[in-house]
Write a structure and sequence with these properties.
Number of domains: 2
Number of helices: 25
Strand content: 5-15%
CATH architecture of the largest domain: Up-down Bundle
Structural class: alpha/beta
Strand order of the largest sheet: 5-4-3-6-7
CATH superfamily of the largest domain: Amino acid/polyamine transporter I
Helix content: 55-70%
CATH class of the largest domain: Mainly Alpha
CATH topology of the largest domain: Amino acid/polyamine transporter I
Distance between the termini: 48 Å
Length: 658
């Protein structure tokens, strides 16, 4: 009976990988999730109902501290100045609308990700794009630090006993967020969705409850209203408050706009049609941000809420005080809902940066301005390297500034507004060049956005310098941090840009140097092999057999650090390897590397056209602690010979059978 011919397997088709390669693979799967194949990239994209919480958590959660930041500046002139919070909030809301509309134009123009970096690169100049990239990268780093610090501050509002553990709580929060993100955006979006939606509902419901209580003169809200009447009875005029202080309050409140660019930066993360879904998400984010921010500022002003210093015992946030007064006794449990959802969403708001920073870094890496590793997907189809770098830098900021929001906030917003301005200016140039359909409307929207965000950038840059204290530090609780931090960003951005140019120059030089058009050296025909022999054993003989495979010119080298052992080695060597000479090189100072390097120079002088191959036998231990029991000559020699030209290093591993 004839046998059926077996189908031939495609030699390029590999068998499926094992579930876990090792114990390390098991732990990686536990923390990071099982690897996803590249063809499953579409599974890691976001539907709109997940994109809204994952990408807008920063922009929406900033309401928890934006109003408070305005009031903290105005109260420096006394309680009578607090009513200027409403005009500042109106200006910020107008800016929110303008910037949101402007970024919708960018989303449709750049469906592959259209933040300030690609827009500036295409329409302005490389230098402008690098400034935009550097500014946004700094802002993303600060977003993680500020959001996490504010979230921990909200928790401490509920549990004051945790005040001494601010920094550890911040660091643990960053670690948790990092692990959630390296597992992939779909899974992290699922984690963030429900808390963010509950937070949105809780804040808007609190605003409505406060307005109803104010309009109906409810008894439970009257004490705060009475305070409000006292404040408004002593209202101060603009001349008394001063334009400078008002601009400072406005610039602090502009933190409410941070995170708006995340949607346009991460359009590739959306499900198809990506541009349409991203634009819809942008609209909803802008509408919710305006409603929540202005509503909170309005009821805070109407109820006469005054901000407290974070250093005060029993500190309560402005949002917490509003929620405490807004709800009647029967529904006062909503105060707890507001507090806890605010705390959770503030901790999760950093996820906007964890989504945006790796995307931006990958674009710049593909262009050769950042290390190429940042352009690579990790196991879970996320830019793992960028996520980890962001986490490390954010942790450093938390440690340096002791997890204090008031220390981090002055540096915030300037970076993102520089990016806003460059992106909108680039879009204006794009409309002028293309004259595409709808360009008249587009140029008006983006032009208005460029002018408004440019003016605000100047306001933020100037208003956060005060009384010449541009670089003067002060000490707080034994810690050191600058009093006005905008200058730090202004110093970091040029340093980042200079670094980008240096990285790009290296890649350009490397490409030119390795170009095939420059030719290449022919490999020498002769190979001199130097086999390092500390002592004779089975592993050494395996290394000798490998040396015989690659050359007939083999020299066994023994660096004599202990003359007492040399005689026995010679006796053992002769019967086992009579065809290979054993050379004894004395080392009176017991150095291994120095005598070997000098002998290699002698060989290269004798045989100028030869390749010298150094064969290093190396034991592979079964347990990690076994390596501590053996000399690690292999790594030391590899390091010492790394920069030697025409020297090849070969490690021949031998394994224990037991």
């Amino acid at each position: 009976m004839a046998t059926q011919p077996q189908p031939q397997q495609d030699p390029t088709e590999l068998p499926p990988p094992p579930k876990y390669h090792s114990a390390i693979g098991l732990w990686r799967a536990l923390f990071f999730g099982r690897p996803l194949a590249t063809h499953r990239a579409d599974e890691a994209t976001l539907p709109k109902f997940l994109a809204l919480p994952i990408l807008s958590s920063n922009a929406l959660s900033s309401n928890a501290y934006a109003t408070e930041a305005i009031l903290a500046i105005l109260i420096l002139k006394g309680t009578g100045a607090l009513h200027f919070a409403l005009p500042a909030a109106l200006g910020i809301c107008a800016l929110l609308i303008i910037v949101s509309l402007s970024y919708i134009q960018i989303i449709y123009a750049y469906p592959h990700g259209g933040g300030a970096y690609p827009v500036s690169k295409d329409n302005l100049s490389v230098g402008a794009s690098l400034v935009a990239g550097a500014s946004l990268m700094v802002d993303y780093m600060l977003t993680v630090a500020v959001s996490v610090a504010a979230g921990v501050a909200a928790v401490i509002t509920v549990y004051p006993s945790l005040h001494s553990h601010i920094v550890p709580l911040c660091v643990v929060s960053i670690i948790v967020l990092t692990l959630a993100n390296v597992r992939g955006v779909r899974e992290s979006g699922t984690i963030f969705a429900w808390p963010t939606y509950i937070f949105i509902f809780a804040i808007i419901a609190t605003e409505v409850a406060a307005m109803i209580g104010l309009w109906t003169h409810a008894s439970y809200i009257q004490p705060a209203a009475t305070v409000g009447e006292q404040i408004h009875a002593t209202n101060m005029g603009l001349q008394a408050v001063g334009w400078y202080l008002l601009l400072q309050a406005f610039s602090q409140g502009c933190a409410a706009l941070t995170g708006l660019e995340a949607v346009s930066n991460t359009v590739p993360l959306f499900q198809k049609p990506q541009d349409k879904n991203a634009a819809t998400t942008m609209v909803w984010m802008g509408v919710l941000a305006v409603l929540m921010f202005f509503g909170l500022t309005y009821v805070t002003d109407a109820m006469g809420i005054q901000p407290m210093s974070e250093a005060e015992p029993g500190y309560r946030s402005v949002v917490g005080m509003v929620a405490d007064k807004a709800w009647p006794p029967a529904l006062h449990w909503m105060f707890g809902v507001v507090q806890w959802t605010t705390a959770i969403v503030l901790l999760l708001a950093a996820n906007t940066a964890f989504a945006g920073f790796p995307q931006l870094a990958s674009m710049m890496a593909r262009d050769g301005y950042l290390p190429r590793q940042l352009a690579n997907f990790g196991d879970r189809l996320a830019f793992t390297n960028g996520i980890i770098i962001l986490a490390v830098v954010a942790t450093f900021l938390i440690l340096v500034f002791h997890g204090r929001v008031d220390a981090l906030l002055p540096m915030y917003a300037i970076g993102v507004f520089i990016g806003f301005t460059l992106a909108q200016s680039g879009m204006v140039i794009r409309w002028l060049k293309s004259r595409a359909k709808g360009w008249h409307t587009g140029i008006v929207i983006n032009g208005l956005g460029a002018i408004s965000t440019g003016v605000v950038s100047v306001i933020i840059g100037v208003s956060k310098f005060d009384n010449g204290d541009i670089i003067s530090p002060y000490f707080h609780f034994g810690g050191f941090y600058p009093r006005y931090g905008t200058w730090i960003v202004m110093v970091l951005v040029p340093i980042f840009v200079a670094t980008f140019y240096k990285i790009h120059k290296h890649y350009v030089d490397l490409k030119e140097d390795l170009s095939l058009s420059r030719g290449w050296a022919q490999m020498p025909s002769h190979n001199t092999v130097l086999l390092l022999v500390p002592r004779l054993h089975r592993g050494m003989m395996e290394a000798l057999n490998y040396a015989r495979l690659i050359s007939q010119d083999i020299r066994a080298i023994h660096i004599e650090t202990n003359p007492e052992n040399t005689g026995q080695l010679k006796l053992d060597w002769e019967p086992n390897a009579p065809d290979v000479p054993l050379l004894i090189i004395e080392s009176p100072f017991r150095s291994l590397v120095g005598p070997l390097l000098r002998y290699i120079e002698v060989v290269q002088t004798e045989r100028r056209d030869d390749v010298v191959t150094v064969v290093v036998p190396e034991l592979v231990a079964h347990r990690w602690w076994h390596r501590l029991l053996h000399n690690q000559a292999g790594p030391i020699l590899r390091f010492a010979l790394f920069n030697r030209k025409d020297v090849v290093i070969v490690n021949v591993r031998y394994f224990l059978e037991r």
